């Protein structure tokens, strides 16, 4: 039936669609909240599985109810109900969503399930960059503008863009352990420091037709088709590489990071400081560690956390434990229930370790990480170098020891140690003597030198999110562009 009468201009509605993993949901929900604060109607599309967890462990439903037009919607991830999605199995979720989600997403958009009465149409899509082409196909078919949000750093995106060149030039595959320190020549700007060792674990394959390597190479190329990219970084940290990406393939990039700091700055301004930083945790946060930190001397504690995906052997866990205890420093250690692979998991040793360490260490299953890093007692962070953790450490001015596990983390740790000089890299080694030495170097021996660069980077990060800063202004541009494309 033909519609008559005056056309009503509906408010803009943005669909935000992250991969079902902690680091992705966390940063994209922060972006959702920033847009909602600006009055934009947002639909946040989570997989059923992740959304159940989010509702179990956070108050997001109440928190977001105050934003007009904010909707949570869910979509299946395509895996069997009893599939173990946690820990290292996140790659199954990536493959499954890339294979199976496209028709469901299309149907949800066409049928109007993603809108509300006041703003029935999705006028803009911001999808996770790891989804590659399928969200772009749907957006193009339906005529909806689409931006991709790459949850990793600009430098990681830049190097992933060159995977086809690495394969073609024969720089990949990596030929065994003795080949690890060979410099990579096909990533412009990184020829002097990027080694085979610093490439993601999925590059350590004997055959370049490896499905994960191929998938990542392919989805990265697909990002060129989006109208724009959003990067959770800031210009003073990665400005030159952002410019390189713009000239090579993606002219429009909004660098709006560190997103958690930008959101905290906005919330503080809007509520005169009465609002706490928002938690988007998919785990049960144990606040008792803050009470423990309150009793520790300034900068005396090393915070240890390997993020939401890392898994390790019991042997590695014990090496870390001995190294930490022998360092004679206080430590706060996040041991997720699924951190240790194999029989009994972390549960089988955690109680024993906690008892043996009571004097100097404290262990929790999941910590309020932003709050921990901002605590005066914390003087270092032993991390898996996930991008969110790296940014959170930068903002808090806490130097890092990096033990990367997966995907982008190997590159992040190289940048932390070699380029930004805000930490030390112990990738590929898990030995109690090395752990002890690293902790002692970071907290004592080399403290002054590393602290200087960490403090300066923290200053620049904060500048970028405050009024007039680069990320602050870029967010304003993004909001303006979203409003201008309202149907
Ligand atoms: C992964 C990749 O490692 C990351 O680089 C990519 O960009 C997103 O997906 P993850 O391994 O979960 O993420 O690490 P990270 O990016 O560091 O995100 C973890 C988040 O969980 C951080 O925001 C951190 O604050 C939070 N966290 C972690 C807690 O709140 N409590 C904890 O105890 C541990």
TrEMBL record:
Domain of life of the source: Eukaryota
InterPro entries assigned: UDP_glucos_trans (IPR002213), UDP_glycos_trans_CS (IPR035595)
Entry keyword set: Glycosyltransferase, Transferase
Gene3D superfamilies the UniProt entry points to: Glycogen Phosphorylase B
Entry EC number(s): 2.4.1.-
GO molecular function: 7-deoxyloganetic acid glucosyltransferase activity; quercetin 3-O-glucosyltransferase activity; quercetin 7-O-glucosyltransferase activity
Any coiled-coil regions, as ranges: none
Catalytic activity as recorded in UniProt: 7-deoxyloganetate + UDP-alpha-D-glucose = 7-deoxyloganate + UDP + H(+)
Family: Belongs to the UDP-glycosyltransferase family.
Database matches in PANTHER family: GLUCOSYL/GLUCURONOSYL TRANSFERASES, GLYCOSYLTRANSFERASE
UniProt protein name: Glycosyltransferase
Biological source species: Trema orientale
């Amino acid at each position: 039936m033909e519609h008559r009468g005056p056309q009503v201009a509906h408010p803009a509605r943005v669909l935000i669609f992250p991969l079902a993993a902690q680091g992705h949901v966390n940063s994209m929900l922060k972006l959702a909240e920033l847009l909602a604060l600006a009055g934009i109607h947002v639909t946040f599309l989570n997989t059923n599985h992740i959304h159940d967890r989010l509702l179990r462990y956070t108050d997001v439903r109440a928190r977001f109810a105050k934003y007009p037009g904010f909707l949570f919607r869910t979509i299946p991830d395509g895996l069997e109900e009893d599939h173990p999605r946690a820990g290292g199995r996140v790659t199954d979720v990536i493959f499954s969503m890339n294979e199976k989600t496209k028709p469901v997403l299309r149907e949800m958009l066409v049928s109007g399930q993603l809108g509300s009465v006041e703003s029935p149409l999705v006028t803009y899509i911001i999808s996770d960059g790891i989804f590659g082409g399928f969200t772009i196909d749907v957006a193009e078919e339906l005529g909806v503008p689409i931006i991709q949000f790459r949850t990793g750093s600009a430098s990681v995106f830049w190097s992933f863009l060159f995977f086809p060149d690495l394969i073609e030039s024969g720089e990949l595959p990596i030929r065994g352990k003795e080949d690890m320190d060979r410099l990579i020549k096909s990533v412009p700007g990184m020829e002097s420091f990027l080694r085979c060792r610093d490439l993601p674990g999925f590059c350590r394959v004997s055959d370049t037709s490896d499905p994960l390597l191929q998938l990542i190479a392919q989805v990265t190329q697909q990002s060129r088709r989006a109208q724009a990219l959003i990067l959770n970084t800031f210009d003073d940290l990665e400005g030159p590489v952002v410019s390189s990406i713009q000239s090579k393939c993606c002219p429009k990039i909004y660098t709006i990071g560190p997103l958690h700091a930008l959101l905290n700055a906005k919330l503080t301004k809007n509520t005169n400081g009465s609002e706490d930083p928002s938690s988007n945790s998919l785990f049960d946060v144990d606040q008792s560690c803050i009470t423990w930190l309150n009793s520790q001397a300034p900068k005396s504690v090393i915070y240890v956390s390997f993020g939401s995906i890392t898994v390790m052997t019991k042997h590695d866990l014990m090496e870390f434990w001995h190294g930490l205890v022998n360092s004679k420093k206080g430590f706060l250690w996040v041991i997720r229930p699924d951190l240790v692979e194999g029989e009994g998991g972390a549960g089988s040793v955690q109680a024993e370790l906690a008892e043996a360490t009571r004097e100097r260490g404290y262990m929790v299953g999941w910590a309020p990480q932003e709050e921990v890093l901002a605590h005066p007692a914390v003087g270092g962070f032993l991390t898996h170098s996930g991008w969110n953790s790296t940014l959170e450490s930068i903002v808090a001015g806490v130097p890092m020891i990096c033990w990367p596990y997966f995907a982008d983390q190997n590159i992040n740790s190289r940048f932390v140690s070699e380029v930004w000089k805000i930490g030390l890299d112990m990738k590929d080694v898990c030995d109690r003597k090395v752990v002890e030495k690293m902790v002692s170097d970071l907290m004592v021996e080399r403290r002054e030198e590393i602290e200087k660069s960490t403090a300066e980077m923290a200053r620049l990060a904060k500048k970028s999110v405050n009024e007039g800063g680069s990320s602050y202004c870029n967010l304003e541009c993004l909001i303006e562009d979203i409003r201008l494309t309202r149907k």
